[in-house]
Write a sequence for this structure.
């Protein structure tokens, strides 16, 4: 995983910027989603990678905190 992250961050430096500027659960989910996407695709487009990654992070954050499940959220 570390080698895949290094390769992805070298190709798209913005990934490292996002991961370093993020905290906690979001940062962990972001890195995991990037690695999952990269592992499943031979060629990677930055726009598609970010779209899929943020979609995955959003779903996991909503499921984890369930803050969208009540009227206050």
């Amino acid at each position: 995983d570390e080698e895949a992250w290094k390769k992805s961050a070298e190709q798209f430096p913005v990934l490292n910027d996002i991961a370093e500027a993020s905290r906690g659960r979001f940062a962990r989910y972001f890195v995991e989603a990037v690695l999952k996407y990269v592992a499943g695709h031979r060629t990677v487009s930055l726009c598609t990678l970010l779209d899929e990654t943020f979609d995955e992070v959003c779903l996991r954050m909503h499921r984890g905190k369930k803050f969208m499940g009540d009227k206050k959220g």
Observations:
- The chain has a mean pLDDT of 90.
- The radius of gyration is 13 Å.
- Residues 2-65 form one domain.
- The chain has four helices and no strands.
